[in-house]
Amino acid sequence: MKNLNKNEISKILENALEEGRKVIPNGHVATYIPQLGTVDPNLLGITMITKDGEMFTAGDWDTRFTIQSVSKTISLAVALELCGREAVFSTVGMEPSGEAFNSLVELDLNSNKPYNPMINSGAIAVESLIIPKASFSDMLLFSKRFCNDPGITLDEVTYNSEMAHSARNRAIAYLLQSKDIIKTDVDDSMVLYTRMCSLSVTSKSLASLALLLAVGGVSPATGERLLSTETCSIVKTIMLTCGMYDGSGEFAVNVGIPTKSGVGGGLLSVVDKELGIGIYGPALDAKGNSIAGKVILKYLADELDLHLFS
Predict the structure, then answer these.
(1) In the annotation, is 260 catalytic?
(2) Is 193 among the catalytic positions?
(3) Are 20 and 281 in contact (CB under 8 A)?
(4) Can you give the pLDDT at residue 272?
(5) Does domain 6-65+201-304 have CATH number 3.40.710.10?
(6) Which of 120, 182, 199, 291 could bond 176 through an S-S bridge, CB–CB 3.0 to 4.6 Å?
(7) Domain ranges for the chain
(8) Are 216 and 235 in contact (CB under 8 A)?
(9) Is 310 helix (H, G, I), strand (E, B) or coil?
(10) Identified catalytic residue from 92, 263, 270, 295
(11) 159 is catalytic
């Protein structure tokens, strides 16, 4: 990262936000979950927190929204901690799928297990591993601690909206059961997965989680080790290769920041050993990623020299 003063960084953040706003009309909010379709697509906010604890914000940074698929990073981290690497990756793979996040084609035709934990089939399988070891209350507590945000709650309205329109995810879950990948109750896996997607966060929550991963699992706020360095390394690597769905490769080349997206508009971005970035922009591109958020991250990567391989 370039060595700039606070005013220079703040100005770059504001400029990045303005660049992001320009593409919002080209995106659209998710409508397959009806509650997400009611969100204002013009909302846009960013939080950046450095390893030294300096926080920079712009736009709607403190607006709460549902975490959606960004929660897959939390579930993967918890599964690695509670179940171990071998158990997790005997259940899910580590490879990009090349398909949409909610696809079941590759699972049905090409593989005996989900390609990775960042697509829906992989995340539902991961939740099935967690169920015997942690309740949703435990997962909520983990989420609050990882995100340094005691205000995280379950958004009941969004949860109910998702559960009422969960036919595709249920089909994925039963396919996983038919392949003996899910060995616990299918409904329990579905409920935990959907509850995790329905957690209410802010861009600051995501920036704090990203910073925890960036610094190797020791909470900058408390000094407590919350995750092992191995868990952080695995999560960051899979974010880089699989975190932006079937747009992950292009994003890795152009931006080069390990990032996980969610259809609620969230982006969790890790600048390793340096800082954490959280973005909220509910207008999505065709692949389900925040359209303005991608522009913002490209701008920041260029202006602050954040590309992993720059």
Answers:
(1) no
(2) yes
(3) yes
(4) 97
(5) yes
(6) 182
(7) 6-65+201-304, 69-197
(8) no
(9) coil
(10) 263
(11) no
